[in-house]
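Build the 3D complex.
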Amino acid sequence: MDGQLLSETFVELADTMVVGFDVIDFLHMLTDRSVQLLDASAAGLLLADPRGELRVVAASSERARLLELFQIQSDQGPCLDCFRSGKPVVVADLSTETRRWPHFAPAAQEAGFAAVQALPMRLREQTIGALNLFRAAPGIFDPADMRVGQALADVATISLLQERSLRRSETLNEQLQAALNSRVTIEQAKGKLAERLQLDMDQAFAVLRRYARTRNLRLSDLARAFVDGSETFPDLVEPGGKGLDR
Amino acid sequence: MSPGPHARPVAGAGRGDMPANRAAGIWGLVAVQAGIRGALVSAVDVCTASLAAVAVSGAALTAAAKAGSGHVMCATDALSEQLAELELTLGEGPGPDAAAAGGPVLASDLAAPAVAARWPGFGPAAQGAGAAGIFAFPLQIGAIRVGVLEMYRRQAGPLTNDQLGDALVFADTAAVLLLEGQDRAAGATGPLAGPGGQPPYLARHRAEIDQATGMLTEQLGVDIEDAFVRLRAYAYAEGRRLADVARDIVGRRLRLESELDLPAGGGK
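Done.
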């Protein structure tokens, strides 16, 4: 494990206190770091919507096949089991779980994954979601690895509490809903940009994220302004232009 | 902090864990109110239906305006109307904050010190008028913002997880009703028209629906609100599930062109 990267990841948590903090970009960064630091080929963060669904808010890849694995899990799968129990769910070999998850297990295997973990995002007694890790090769997970994974899940939970000084249990619910709605906005922006530039959704997301970072914009703010037309972004939508390179 | 309503995970036994059932149940409550009025379902029915389900004393809907301030569309009682008008006048309060933040504002105790700091004008005025707690929900689907649903209680206390879940579905329902109401005002028919109308969010949330909505702003050359309404209208006209149509659009197997024989939009 890259100790330097691990230290940096936790130090970055301090940045969540700063005004203008971009929680959506932070959660994406955490899923990227999970893949870099842990024994995982793909990662996603899912949050529980009080309407009754588990929904992905950030993933290490925006490829449709991976996102579909998260969408399936609002009905069945390791994340749902983890969310309901508040405990980690770890599977070393998905081929043994077809009866347990008749829809999810084959889909995950078809997508190239053989092992999976779901680690709970918890705040005191409340489980608000899960960090979902996938690995291409079957086999048990290293316990030290899993401890770091749980710590990353905890960091994700803490980052949602931007106004900790208020110490209100309602703050978490407010932030959670705002994050879920930001995700919807980002999906709308992906669609609009993908259509404008004839890209796939994964590429469109990469363009949006790069653009936001280089111009110091919150990803969700960029997405909203782009979709509702309140601002134009000429070098974002210029085909083959600066928005794509860089 | 002692374990309270948040002590157990949200999902579990009961109505709370099946989104389709919850949405259908809430649509039923809303339809009952319309039946009482002897009229087609409209946004006001969301307000009246929410009172018992969320255990609040009053509810009001404020519609956003593209430029300038919004206006109060409906209110179940004088106090909820007064609170909404106060926010518009003072330019502060849970409603404006919810609209700006793109997320709910759950001010369950207006007597808390943080409230006076946050809303120095509105806070004391709201309390003086008789409100003890206010819950504001932006009516939104991503970048689509149509207004705010605001509820108040005469006693302080947070929403339970079930009440919060229901309130969010009421807000979703109001958002779609307002969007389609704009369309229907011009004489269009659509998925919600008629007594057997299709409730807004029966299906689970699908990213393809949001992506397809974004794509349609380009394909049809319309704003995001119109794109959403047209997507729903197309699915309804074709007798197909919204998620399936969206998947075809995202998969580039289906394009919607502006000259398709869709019901004419209300115009924006």
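Residues 4 and 94 of chain B are 23 Å apart (CA to CA).
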